[in-house]
UniProtKB/TrEMBL annotation:
GO cellular component, one term: endoplasmic reticulum lumen
Source species of the chain: Aegotheles bennettii
Its job: Probable flavoprotein which may function in endoplasmic reticulum associated degradation (ERAD). May bind non-native proteins in the endoplasmic reticulum and target them to the ubiquitination machinery for subsequent degradation.
PANTHER family, per database record: FAD-DEPENDENT OXIDOREDUCTASE DOMAIN-CONTAINING PROTEIN 2 (PTHR43539:SF23), FLAVIN-BINDING MONOOXYGENASE-LIKE PROTEIN (AFU_ORTHOLOGUE AFUA_4G09220) (PTHR43539)
Any GO BP: ERAD pathway
Coiled coil stretches, renumbered: none
Assembly: Interacts with SEL1L. May interact with OS9 and DNAJC10. Interacts with TXNDC16.
Cofactor field: FAD
Protein name: FAD-dependent oxidoreductase domain-containing protein 2
One MF annotation (Gene Ontology) recorded for this entry: monooxygenase activity
Family: Belongs to the FOXRED2 family.
InterPro entries cross-referenced by the UniProt entry: Auxin_biosynth/cation_transpt, FAD/NAD-bd_sf
Amino acid sequence: LGLALCAASGAAFLYRDYCVLGAGPAGLQAAYFLQRAGRDYLVFERSHAPGSFFALYPRHRKLISINKRHTGKANAEFNLRHDWNSLLSHDRRLLFRHYSRRFFPDADSMVRYLEDFAALLELRVQYNTAIIHVALERDPRAWNGHYFLLTDQDRHSYKCSSLLVATGTWVPNVVNFPGSEYVEGYETVSTNPEDFAGQTVLILGRGNSAFETAENILGVTNFIHMVSRSRVRLSWATHYVGDLRAINNGLLDTYQLKSLDGLLEGDLEDLAIIKDKKGKLHITLRFYLENRNTSTGIDSITLPQDELDNFATRAPYDRVIRCLGWKFDFSIYNRSLRMLPGKGNKKKYPQIKASYESRGTRGLFVLGTASHSVDFRKSAGGFIHGFRYTTRAVHRLLENRHHGVPWPSTVYPITQLTNSIIKRVNEASGLYQMFSVLADIILLRENATAFEYLEEYPVGVLAELEMQTGRKAPNGLFVIIMEYGRNFSGADKDVFYYNRAVGEAQHAWQSNFLHPVIYYYKRLPTEREMRLRLPDWPLPRPDAVHHIVEDFLTDWTAPNAHVLPLRRFLENCLGTDLRNFFAESCFLFALTRQKLPPCCQQGYMRMQGLLGSTGLRRHAVEAGLLQDYSLTDFLGDRPADSHQGSQDQLLRDHTIPVRPLQHLVNAKDE
């Protein structure tokens, strides 16, 4: 599609329905969904190729996103649970496993992967275009009551109805204090270990970039000290993949095993650095420098060790390196867009709603790493294996809002309710990666005879489900979500304690590891209920809740431990019998009951099911699921005019349907 020219306020604009800022993973993922839907869009990328962030970072080139190429399963959706690098597409060539054999891949493999993703799918990306200003133009004819006006570095102008921001967080975090001019940044520091041979190094920061830098020079330095405001957070304790990963934590070994290296806590804004005549860097505190003239030399300045002779950082350093991460670039947005930073530890991200739409401007959505404020330190929304699903969710919201395309759903008979849930919790990757954030929604039809299944909906906007999806929920709903135990995650938690796992179904609510949780609501929760929900609860208090007990293999298919308790929970909520029955039982129920189970109503009474056979009957008899009539009778050896023979003849009549083999396990009257 060619760009449409339009005139506005005497200036010429190139128009698109959707403008996407940034051709990183999130921008390309958004472009893929827009292209598959046949929408009018354009991606703007400031560099000459996609994924420019990965061309530089991480500096030491090893990604911490896992690339598990073998799982023992052939299910593609399940395998994505352990593939943290692939974007979603229909092209099987574009799985990251084809680009690297390493468990922790090289960043150059990611650059090559993103280039191929954009090229093979023929995504519409305009490279070498840096958007330097974004403003609003009010117009009641526009989708959202205004257009977005974009200006690039060459003063070319663009106009779009909806703006998708996928620029990530790329502006380095910098702390200013006296002497900060002597600090080297992570973005420019040497990656050659030999440049640090025999040196003493101080690193500011305590994230993966700080430990990655330390790991690179650990074997050549005199010692390394690391200073940060907060204590170290280990990802295996917090269950947050953005915290310190084991692949980078060598410094913890050398610290705790007393090999000179060490960690310190302190507010970086209280520090000061003084450089002596030999070029050594001395650490002091800011208040020591107040009302003093530092130009007179270090000898005239009081240092902490002058008063406390065992001050921890009394030894001078050869180098100080800043590794404090990145923040969102707010500078290009006009005040009219009200793109404001978050509060507290989310200030590096823009303020957005749980729907990923800007709090200040309708029609502006933030995707990818920059949208991580929704689930910061809770889930994986700041990383590829998380935001590939949240980006798809945003696309579905936009399809409903602007094009009248309802959220994709499938309608099943109520007899398939248990099977549908078991299937999803065992293979769905979006639920697994975006735990506590994305959920499957089951909308019940009238009289609970059928249900509508919606996948991976943002639970933060559950109260807006009917408006956001175009689906109705008048008869109650189930919400399927994945959760860790309430008290199992935290920087100070011992996650390896004895008896840390639960194995019995009756104690499923005490499960610690990631496991499925099913919430039942008789009506859709209101916005007020969502606001007033309990702290750390993803949803308000339900009418009923069920935990499927955690499983060491993350395989929730055990008939007694997983399936049976779930089925009974669903039956209690619906007031119906969800078991599957053979034709023999349905025939008996039809003669003796006023109301048949849904299985008999929707199967036997409609002449649906699997035709009987000798092998099927033998299997049922051996399993104790049918009365033990003689198999010779079933084969027709008894006299046809006898009463028993007539009964057997009826049971083996090929016009009477029998339930499929895969349902045999549920046919017992438990």
